[in-house]
Amino acid sequence: MGSFKLGGMTLKSLFSKPETIMYPVQERYKPEGLKGHIEINPETCILCGICQKTCPCGAIVVDKPGETWSIDNFRCVQCGACWRECPKGSLTMEPTYPAPSTTKSVVTIDVHPKKPERKAAAADSAAEPKKPAMSIEEQRAAMEAKIANMDPEKAAKVRANFEAKIAKLQSEQA
């Protein structure tokens, strides 16, 4: 019985199209629900590292000091945990096959989070001394209203801290 089955399969394969394709010359059909591979948008990435923490196989490496994001496509199992957890939506699961490769390599992308605007704003604010929104008398009255129901020992400590801060602020302004 086995030889009849084998003979039938052989004859069938002689007169039908081959089951294989000439990949990558011919594009393989994309089945419904194909997960594909991970892509990153470096403009929106903030290098938080959540994708690295949620990756079950450790395929993603986030280097904050070096401002790089890396993925080892040979370790990635296309589970999609990283793109589901990304708070900024920087990661996407592209429904295409990854490019064929003959060597194992890690894809590294330079990511530059939008920090210069924050640093410039911080530099401007550091140049000007901070001015309190309320006068010292108003702050003292607000503090006294808050500590009116406190334990006397704790209220004395809060008053002492407040007076020390006021003295420091006045010495900086002088």
Structural overview:
The chain has 174 residues and is an alpha+beta fold. The chain contains 6 helices and 5 strands, in the order H-E-H-E-E-H-E-E-H-H-H. Strands 2-3-5 form a 3-stranded antiparallel β-sheet, with no helix packed on it. Strands 1-4 form a two-stranded antiparallel sheet. Helix 5 runs antiparallel to helix 6. The longest helix is centred in the C-terminal third of the chain and has 22 residues. The radius of gyration is 32 Å and the shape is rod-shaped. It starts with a helix and ends with a helix.
Features:
13% strand, three-stranded antiparallel β-sheet, alpha+beta, 40% helix, rod-shaped, two-stranded antiparallel ribbon, 174 residues, 6 helices
Level of helix content?
A: 25-40%
Strand order of the largest sheet: 2-3-5
Largest sheet: 3 strands, antiparallel
The general outline is rod-shaped
Q: Which structural class is indicated by helix and strand composition?
A: alpha+beta
Short description:
40% of the residues lie in helices and 13% in strands. By secondary structure, the chain is α+β, with helices and mostly antiparallel strands. Helix 5 runs antiparallel to helix 6 (152-173).
SSE order and pairing:
Elements: H1 2-14, E1 37-40, H2 50-54, E2 60-63, E3 68-72, H3 81-85, E4 91-94, E5 106-110, H4 116-127, H5 136-147, H6 152-173
Antiparallel strand pairs: 1-4, 2-3, 3-5
Helix pairs in contact: 5-6
